[in-house]
Design a protein that fits this description.
With 264 residues, the chain is α/β, with parallel strands linked by helices. Helices cover 52% and strands 15% of the residues. 30% of the residues are buried. It binds NADPH dihydro-nicotinamide-adenine-dinucleotide phosphate and (2S)-3,4-dihydro-2H-pyrrole-2-carboxylic acid (A1CAB).
Length: 264
């Protein structure tokens, strides 16, 4: 596969690393306006780093756009004359609907809208995808690309905003929970490094239990909570302090923020 990543910033480079680690490209172009910080990627012989989006698109089939929303329409406008039947356009741009993409380049392109997260760099992204009418013919290809770097789910476009919060912002939410657990562990006597090791592997184990068993979280909680024991005591205190409620409220606030910048 010949892949171009237009906008090699935080997410674009995470995708680039995921693709390189999974050996998922025959050639890869990485673009940004100031390429100094990413020239190192050229040590991979498949990778070309350039400021020239048109060159990248002319030499690639899979075009992954990972620029800030404010730059996207202008970039599409500047390359739309190059787009053809060989191209699959994959947007990762938050709050930028398929109708807006089609408004710039027309309906006659394979357009996939995707919402990966930065864990794509280590092959563990939860990525949601949807497509325009024409793109339905390439949705399996898009799934195959993202499944190499984690897990993908096809969803209706109307759920893309919610997927952004749960999956993309979700990485930051889980990081904060791991960090808070780490701070608790330090207070209980572990040194900082040990504390983080305990927190992140316990988090990984808890998620793996659900993924591998298909169980409901409460079923797994019931296995841990000894009557009158320390787990239920801690859990109930966390709930008295609003743990579930604050997570749900944060998720909804994050969702409302996307609505706000979509309407601007
Ligand atoms: N970060 C995340 O976890 C996630 C982000 N997203 C979405 O992905 C997109 C990118 O986010 P993020 O990576 O955080 O943003 P960054 O600002 O880190 O990356 C955007 C990149 O685009 C480059 N860029 C700007 N203009 C051009 C241009 N004309 N041609 C080529 N490249 C250009 C910038 O580099 P330079 O200034 O040098 O050109 C920059 O490296 C956003 O739309 C965001 O909503 C979606 C899911 C998760
Ligand atoms: O915070 C943001 O707005 C972007 C979208 C999801 C992750 N980063």
């Amino acid at each position: 596969m010949k892949i171009a990543i237009i906008g090699a910033g935080n997410l674009g480079l995470s995708i680039a690393n995921g693709i390189l680690n999974s050996n998922g490209a025959t050639t890869m172009y990485l673009t940004k306006r100031d390429t100094k910080s990413i020239l190192d990627f050229e040590k991979h012989n498949k990778v070309t780093v350039t400021t020239d989006n048109r060159l990248a698109i002319q030499n690639s089939d899979i075009l992954i756009f990972a620029v800030q929303p404010v730059h996207f329409a202008g970039i599409l406008e500047s390359v739309k004359d190059l787009l053809n039947e060989n191209h699959v356009i994959i947007s990762t741009i938050t709050g930028f609907g398929i109708d807006k993409i089609e408004g710039v380049i027309g309906k006659d392109n394979y357009i996939i809208r995707s919402m990966p997260n930065t864990a794509i760099s280590v092959g563990k992204s939860m990525t949601c995808i949807c497509s325009n009418e024409k793109g339905k013919k390439r949705i399996d290809l898009a799934k195959a690309i993202f499944n190499r770097m984690g897990h993908s789910m096809e969803i209706p476009e109307s759920q893309m905003q919610a997927a952004t919060v749960i999956c993309a912002s979700g990485v930051a939410f889980w990081m904060r929970l791991i960090r808070a657990t780490t701070q608790g562990a330090i207070q209980l006597g572990f040194d900082a490094q040990e504390a983080q090791e305990l927190a992140m592997h316990t988090c990984n184990g808890a998620a793996s239990l659900l993924i591998e068993s298909g169980n409901h979280p409460e079923e797994e909680i019931d296995r841990v909570t000894t009557p009158m024991g320390c787990t239920i005591t801690g859990l109930n205190e966390m709930e008295h302090q609003g743990l579930s409620s604050s997570l749900i409220r944060g998720i909804v606030a994050s969702y409302d923020k996307i609505t706000e910048f979509k309407t601007k």
